[in-house]
Amino acid sequence: MSVSKKYYIIDFDSTFTQVEALDELARISLREHPEREQIYKKIEDLTNQAMDGKLSFRESLAGRIQLLEANKDHLKQLVKHLKKQVSTSFSRNKNFFSRHADDVLIVSGGFKEFITPVVLPFHIKKENIYANTFVFNEEGKIVGYDEANPLSFEGGKVKLLRELQLQGEIHGIGDGYSDFQLKEFGMIKKFYAFTENIERKSVTEKADHITPSLDEFLYVNNLPSAISYPKNRILCVVIGDVPDIAVKYLKKDGFSVKQVASLEEKHIAAAGIILMGNKASISPEELSRAAKLKVIGYLGNSKKYISHDTCTAMGVVIFDNIRKPESVAKRIAKFINNGDSFKSSNFPNIQLPEVKNGHRFIHIHRNVPGVMAKVNQVFAGHGINIVSQFLMTNECIGYVITDISAEYDKQVLKDLKNTNNTISFRVLY
């Protein structure tokens, strides 16, 4: 039985990149203009009206081009800027684009002149980039665009896909109304509203799935991802007096953050991370019900308010810092992202290098003889070579990080979880 080919239609502005490129081009081209702030506002309003479906795309595009006063030199500056503004989750998932180079299409109402040089380093094929093109005068100034291009029209993405007649199952990812139109007109099987950079309610309420990051999209579609579990699915519960700088850091890193006045049962059961202000507390009984909890950040000295012994026995890492709330947030993110337990208050301290083109497993176990031998027997039994391994222990637990380069059977994970004296196990990436 043949499997239907899959295609992934991906938007550029506010999806592949964090920004709207024409808005950024305006900031470059109008930098010296005396009325630049008023013009910026007009351009941004035109962008948002089109993205929300309140203005036709063609009207929005024509209006923005007229206001730009941009030339080829401005475009060079824009490309340099956009390369630094690629969405965080896209940047870490180059491997997906490499492995699916034949399946990914960039379809945008933006312009090839700035899109192509930004996406080519991600192994996206030049012939799979569909966008508008500028018209220049003899001095290199942008004076218009190719008005025959289907993407310059209202519903342009729908028109383009009708022309392409792709044979297979098509999924679309984007932040705007024009992306949703692909689903509305039956051109794609599923529409994923991408909200890492901006969330438009008029779009998200129509989506098949809201994807706060590319990791989420890859996870639900069982596609190769840089991390094994999307960070937006890890709930960070914030309790007590916690400065905004720490909360904002974790939100920016991609975690789902919920600030609460008190720790209720539902928060304890759902939390993967708890960030606590000084003198906030959690009892051993409450901890015992925190089945998903991986790490606690405490803005003070936690020893009087949290049972370190209970956390250690559960495999929950604690990071304290009295004076630097952002430092605690960074330690939390580093532990979730990389397995780094450096400066933990209750765990063996390990500082880890990042592994490229491989997989990292974290195994926390009771510090009793023979556990490491059994862990390594699992890898040997499945014919897996270990690239590197890091082990630190204290009197209670062992904390071991294992990096492998080969693909592995899911049974490996079950066998590692079922090893005697295992406290917790997770695949990092």
UniProtKB/TrEMBL annotation:
Co-factor(s): Mg(2+)
Spans through the membrane: none
Keyword Cytoplasm: no
GO cellular component: cytoplasm
Pathway where this protein functions: Amino-acid biosynthesis; L-serine biosynthesis; L-serine from 3-phospho-D-glycerate: step 3/3
UniProt record, GO biological process: L-serine biosynthetic process
Superkingdom classification of source: Bacteria
Keywords recorded for this protein, A-Z: Amino-acid biosynthesis, Coiled coil, Hydrolase, Magnesium, Metal-binding, Serine biosynthesis
GO molecular function, one term: L-phosphoserine phosphatase activity
Listed EC numbers: 3.1.3.3
Catalyzed chemical reaction(s): O-phospho-D-serine + H2O = D-serine + phosphate; O-phospho-L-serine + H2O = L-serine + phosphate
Coiled-coil ranges per UniProt: 58-85
Keyword Nucleotidyltransferase tagged: no
Uppermost EC category: hydrolase
Domain ACT: 360-429
Record's protein name: phosphoserine phosphatase
